[in-house]
Amino acid sequence: QVQLVESGGGSVQPGGSLRLSCAASGRTFSSYASDYTMDWFRQPAGKEREFVAALSWGGGDTNYADSVKGRFTISRDNAKNTVYLQMNSLKPEDTAVYYCAAHTGWTWYQDPTRMHYWGKGTLVTVSP
Fold it and tell me: What SS3 string covers 69-119?
C-alpha cells in the first residue's frame, strides 16, 4: 500500500507562485519507489479531473500537460519520499483541487482511472 498526503495549497493572486508537496509513505513505496510514477492531477469545480504533471521516480523523467508547460515544475526529494509541484505564473484557470497520485510502471498516463493511489487533495485558488 501507498499513502499520499498533499500540502501547500492556498490562495494566491494571478501571477503568483505556490509549491505543493506530496509525501509518500507505506512499506511498498519505501521498498519499490523506483517502480512508481508520481502524478499530479487537478479538478476545477464542476469539471472533470485532468492531468497536470508526472515524474518517473526511478529515472526522474517528467511529463507535463500543455496548459502548464513552462509554468509548472515537478520534482522529487528521494530522502524525504516527497514530490513537489512548483507552480509559477498562476492564472485564475489554475484554480482547482490538486491531487497527488501514483501508479506502478513508467508509462505516461493522462487518464485518472489508470492511477493506483490517490491523496485527498489540496485546494489552490487563484484570484485578484
Answer: CCCEEEEEEHHHCEEEEEECCCCHHHCEEEEEEEEECCCCCCCHHHCCEEC
Q: Which residue has the cell 496548459?
A: 67
Q: Which three cell numbers stand for residue 71?
A: 509554468
pLDDT tens, residue by residue, 69-112: 999 999 999 899 999 999 999 999 999 999 999 999 889 999 99
Helix, strand and coil percent figures for the chain, each rounded to 5: 15, 50, 40
Asked if residues 97 and 43 have their Cβ atoms less than 8 Å apart, the reply is yes
CA 6 vs CA 12, 18, 59: distances in Å:
17, 13, 22
